[in-house]
Predict the structure.
Amino acid sequence: MDWLDIDVLTFQYFIIVFARIASMVMFAPIIGSGSVPAQFKVGFSFMLSLIIFPIVSRDFPILPDHIILFWMLVIREVLVGLLIGVIGNLMFSAVQLSGQIFGMQVGFGIVNVMDPLSETQISLLGQFVFLVAILLFMALDGHHILVKIVASSYSVLPMGAFSFTEPLGMEVTKWLTKAFIIAYKIGLPMIFTLLLISVLMGIIARTVPQMNVFIVGLPLKIFVGLFMMGSTVALTVYLLKGYFNDFLADIWMMLRMAGAG
């Protein structure tokens, strides 16, 4: 049979599969960044859909007859991909926030660089921590695991079964809260140390008014801040490993919650 000889029903099923995969790719960490060309994202999504389509074709439901119901089904599949991609991106946003707070305390608040992944200006130190997180994510095969999750999600959340349940909403809210916790846990040693230095500079300014604490304090903060950053890289890696594992476990739980409605 000619490979172009595809019936309409098969094409409709392929669109639904493509919707879930493409929405995950568009918002996934690293590959979903603004620096990756849109043509590559679409092509990559198309190739993944071609690979996954024969695997999941055994469990296809009956398609609705009305066009509006069909596109509502497509939107549900898009929401599944968004759930996987956006939750994955939350961790990297938390890492950027951690570096941003730390960079402002050090005195690098105006030393910003353009981040090609998010297409926004972030702190120089935030970019460093962000790159460490990306390298760790790829070293742990996180990009492969994301593809595996979206490919295996059909066994947990069949096509058209997505519903935004109350437990799912609570879990998503918990992950939004966890993003801020991640940010402060990663930056806590550096932030706390620089806070102590600020308090020390304040005491010195009161006891030795002749000393210009602004001239002394700025290079001291930079030196101590960079030293603490280098000293806590291993701790940052350890924390990120745990949060990556939590993400993988929680995303499966969220998919089950989305299918429980």
